[in-house]
Every structure is written in structure tokens, then in C-alpha cells.
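ok trying this again, last paste got cut off
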Amino acid sequence: MKLNLNHSEINRRIGKTIAKYRQQSGYTQEQVAEILQIGNEAVSRMERGLIMPNVARLMELAEIFQCTAADLIADGSPRLFDKTHHLHLMMSELAEHDRELMLHFLERFTLRLKQAQA
């Protein structure tokens, strides 16, 4: 099975995810650079997808943002499995009644999107 994934697009998506987690955590690029002991430009280049952090760097970023390295990769992934897993994680944190409400909303929204495509 061959995956049709463009490396520069993956880098861009992961970079956007890193920026999103950084902003949600309340850090500036400068603060992250200082913690990682790298230059501000290196953080900027990661977030723009110009360079891809290695696994060790992803783990350091995950530690800073209080998430997993897998979160940083999967959140920007175009793969359906990663998207549905993300949805599963979000729903698992909800009460049963709220999960049912969200599922109902998703079913209705999916139907609406299918009708718009037809």
C-alpha cells in the first residue's frame, strides 16, 4: 500500500499544529526557543513547515505543551484514522449524554454535507 502524502505538506501541517499547541499553551516563539536552547528563527521555521523537528525535538515540544508527541503528529495528519482517533479522544472526555448529543450533531452535519455534494 502506497501512501499519497507529500512531505512538504506534512511538514506544513505539523508546523501549524506545533504553532497551535504553542499558542494554546500561552508561549511565544521566543519562550519556546529559550526552553529548547535554540534560536527564535528555528522555532519559526518549524512552525512554517520549513524544517521538520526530529523525534527527540517533538518529544521536547510535547513536554513543553503538556501533550504527547503523537498529538503533534496526528493533529495535522490528513489520514482518516488519525482524524477519527482525534474525534474519539475528544468524545471520550464527555459525559454519555454529551457524547450522544455530539454524535447526533455529527450525523446531521454529515448528511447535510453529503446533500451539498450531490
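PB: full thing came through this time. Helices lie at 7-25, 29-36, 40-47, 55-65, 69-74, 80-92, 96-117.
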